[in-house]
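HOLO CASE FILE
Compound: pyridoxal-5'-phosphate
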Amino acid sequence: MTDTAVHSAAEAAPIYLDYQATTPVDPRVREAMWPYFAASFGNPHSVHHRYGRDAEAAVAQARRDVAALIQAEPREVIFTSGATESNNTAIKGGARFHAARGKQHVVTPVTEHKCVLASCQRLEQEGFAVTYLPVRANGLVDPQAVADAIRPDTALVSVMAVNNEIGVIQPLAEIGAICREKGVMFHVDAAQAAGKIPIDTTELPVDLMSISGHKIYGPKGIGALYVRRRPRARLEPLMDGGGQERGLRSGTVPAPLAVGLGAACRIAGEVMADERAHLDALYRRLRDGLMERVPDAYVNGDETARIPGNLNICIPGLDAETLIEAVPGLALSTASACSSAAVEPSYVLSALGLSDADAAASLRIGLGRYTTADEVDRAVAEIAGAAQRLRDSGATRLQA
Ligand SMILES: *Cc1c(COP(=O)(O)O)cnc(C)c1O
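Model generated. Tokens follow.
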């Protein structure tokens, strides 16, 4: 059996094209983690013996590796269970801290990840006011709209770096500058951005930032929250306990997972530029191939401010769920994994102004570290072929 990724496993295995839902674990990450599941099993908070100190040293190295990816200080990195927890901690913890100081308002775009929107809804139940910002037809937030939404009682602005459904990159520098000028905390959900686009916390005026292990070829169940020290970002912890992670996240740090996240961040920092070039080429190949064979298809989201690992494409008149079933050789999804069980059209695509029919006709294709040009060619042939067959049969025409 070979140790390399998904595509080289069983011959019948479908081509993985869902890198926004999760990424395979890089074999180097797996290797780095093993010892901490085995001989080096110590509790990183047990400082009285070698088992604990070995684990503690590994966690400290992992913290340095995560910090280095975003030019942060290691003590600004808090380990969490993933970006969902990081986002909850940043938004609810940040807002609740400031509520005690009379600030009870939060600003966030309507196209954020479900866990950001649900955190904001929780705050509304607690008496906070939330402004949900619309986005432009290209999926981008207007920085001026953020400026206009900020009030004297605004505690926090939360804007994602890269959208998980359509791959657009939000203008974080401009929005951060506005927040800094107005003295409002700025949180960024960077789950889809960290390790894919350069993020430098010494330049970007961000106070809190969320990272997820399993979106950057690391393990599931681990993430990080960046918490700026100067000027200091203040927040309340969500959990009470032993006071680990500077009191912000009680609970024993899962050393093997932290080591995996650290390795994933280190590798991402090393390969980011090359990977970007590789994915740029694959993205063009995929988009141009599909547009040539399905000329009335169109790309959702801005064509320039985007990461190349995501193509969200609408094939008008076709039901994307039916199309996905027609191409069992491809592992694809329509939108976010968390909401795809529901039949409602994507709220992100609706926010871009797509009709329900066009939103239901949109497909998310995720490319990543292990995608090859050959796989892209096969995906183009299969998707275009299936679209043609379905259109010819007329079977999946959506009701107007
Ligand atoms: C995946 C994702 C999350 C949730 O991350 P988990 O680590 O799975 O909790 C949050 N935000 C975005 C943008 C994501 O893509």
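CASE NOTES: The longest helix spans residues 255-293. Residues 82-84, 87, 113, 115, 160, 164, 189, 191-192, 212, 214-215, 223 surround pyridoxal-5'-phosphate (CB under 6 Å).
CLOSED: yes
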